[in-house]
Structure formats: structure tokens, C-alpha cells
Amino acid sequence: MNTSNGARYLNAGGYGVFIHGARHPHVEQAVIQQIQTNPVSSRILLEPTAAIAAEALIKIAPKGLRHVHFAGSGTEAAEAAIKLCRTLGRTRLITTVNGYHGKTMGALSVTANEVYQNPFRPLLDDVSSIKFGDIKALENALKTGPKAAVIMEPIQGEGGVRVPPTGYLTAVKNLCEQYDALLIFDEIQTGMGRLGKWWGADFEQVTPDIMLCGKGLSGGIVPVSAMVATPDVFKAFNRDPFIHTSTFSGAPIAMAAVKAAIEAIEKEKLVHKAEILGLQIKEGLQEIVTQYCPHLVKEIRGVGLLIGVELHSPGLAGALIAELIERYLIVNYSLNAGAVLRFTPSAVMSQSEVAFLLEAFRSACIALSEQYPSLSSVGVS
What we know:
By secondary structure, the protein is of the alpha/beta class. The chain has 2 domains: 10-20 and 269-377, Alpha-Beta Complex (Aspartate Aminotransferase, domain 1), CATH 3.90.1150; 25-267, 3-Layer(aba) Sandwich (Aspartate Aminotransferase, domain 2). 39% of the residues lie in helices and 15% in strands. The longest helix is centred in the C-terminal third of the chain and has 23 residues, at 270-292.
């Protein structure tokens, strides 16, 4: 990416949007063609581009998810999911500590962070938070109170790239079935191939009742998100399409981007590339940390091209981000985990770009270690 003064940066951030890189030519051309044809449609007549995009999304979604509601952002998809759950009597919501689902009022209610919630209280009633990865905590929450809907990310993104234990997603699904709860997987950041699978749910072949998509769904060009659901769960929206609408939902330019984004991932095998590149980058980061600053970094973790580097304090994370920016490398700050910086690079990176990323990280780690030769010099005991 280029700045206004001509500087060039490698974008390994973008909060998961740029799985295709910037301005992928196939997506860009599809959107330009749609702009020249019919960019925004009437809400009175049926628009075929929405059906075509929905069909493309359903083909790659976990088996059993058959109905799609398109929106403009991830938080809108979360709002739609919460409303859909209410049509089935699930007014009680269970979320995870440090989970992130957006900042509109309903989505904010299940984004369990008081920093973002407190200025806007009161939020939705009957929302509880459990520890992510703790199946016993979920069971205790499910068996007390009325029927619920559970919303979680297969891997927490803004929570600091928290990867659950193997079998956790399957156990969550089984518990939801046992207690007649609805299960929402928020795959807005983890989906579209970023993890080296199409979806985080695919690692355990779990089909949620509702799945949220976004970020990479747009090809990085037109904002778009989607809520995908099973027929039984979606039936209220099918019965009366006017109970949840939006002027720009299913806009033709966004639908063109969705279809082209999926085509580009399939044609260029970006899901597989994300797996291979992710392993290479994570191993490279770990080698650098081990050699130059093991006293400053607590852990490197992640799957595919969602990689978290946890330092011993938020201040250290901020200092490392600043060092990386000075070396023309952009990474993500984690909203719900201040000590964790995230790498979410594209799956179209060349080997020279991977080498640039690792060299920038190496140089930044050396500089950070010289500034803080021990943890005590940071003020961390």
C-alpha cells in the first residue's frame, strides 16, 4: 500500500479484510462492471445479483446453512442474528469473555468488554459471559435459565487470537443441541479461507445454526457482510421479508464483489496458500523471538493467516507496533487484548514480501530488546 507522500508499506494488518490483497483485479473488474450496469437496485423488484451471490456463498458454507441475509458490516450481521434468534424465543444470550461481535447496540451487548459497553448502558437484558474454551462453564450457563442463543468466534480475533482446545467446537455444538440452544458462529474474521480452511467451523466439521461472514467476503473493495442460517432457523425472515430490511442490503455492487471474491479464492487456491504461508510466517516469527527477545514475548499463536504475538504488557505491544511501522510494516492492534498484536496478511503474498515481513519483524525485535534488555526494565515483574 502507498501513502500520500509516496511511502510504500506492506499491509499485514487490515483486520482480516485483505485475504485477496488490495484491489484484486478479478473483484475490482466485477465491481466496475456492475457499477456501469446497475450499482444500487430498487427494493421493489427482485435483484438477480443477490441470488447469484447467495448461491456462491452457500456452496462454500458449512453443510446445512441454506439461507442468506446480506448486510453492510459485521455488526449488522450480528444484529440480524440476534433478531433472528428472538423470532424463535431465544431472548437469552450467552457470549464469551473478550469475544468481539461489533459495536451497535445488540452486537455491543455480546461484545464482553466494559470499555466499549459502559458509555452506552443500558444494553440488552439477559446476556451472560463465559470463559472461551471452557466447556464446563458453557454447560453451567445453558442449564440455568430459559433457552438461549450462544454466540462465539471459532478463534477469538480481537480477544488476542485465542485458539480453543481441540474438540471444543464439537462439544459446544453438542451442548447446544442437548439444551435446545441456538449456536451462532461469528466467522467475520476467521472465515473466507484465512485459517487455511474456508471456515473455522470446518476444522471440526461443525454446522452452527447461524454463521456470520464479512471482511474477506468483499474482496477488500466493497463493504459487505452476511448472516447465513439453516432453513428452520431462518423461517421467520422467509415468511415475512419485511420484518428485517435495509436499503443497501444486497446492493448489486456488493453482490458482484461477493461472487468475484469467492471465485478468486477458488481459482487461485488461496485457502491452501493461507495454510502454507501461515505456517511459514508463524515459524519465522517464533525463530526471531527465540533469538532476539524471548524475555519480552509471552507467546506466538494462531492458525493460518491469523497470528497473534502476545507480549508481557500492552506498552510493549504498542512499542513493537511503532517499531514495525517505522520499518514500513503494518499490523493489527487487538481491541480486547492490548498486549497482543496480530498479523492478518493476505494469501497472495510473494516470497519476497514474506522475507520483507520477517526482516522488518527481526529488526524491530532487536530494537525493542535493546530498549528493554530485561522485563524489569519494562516495569514488569
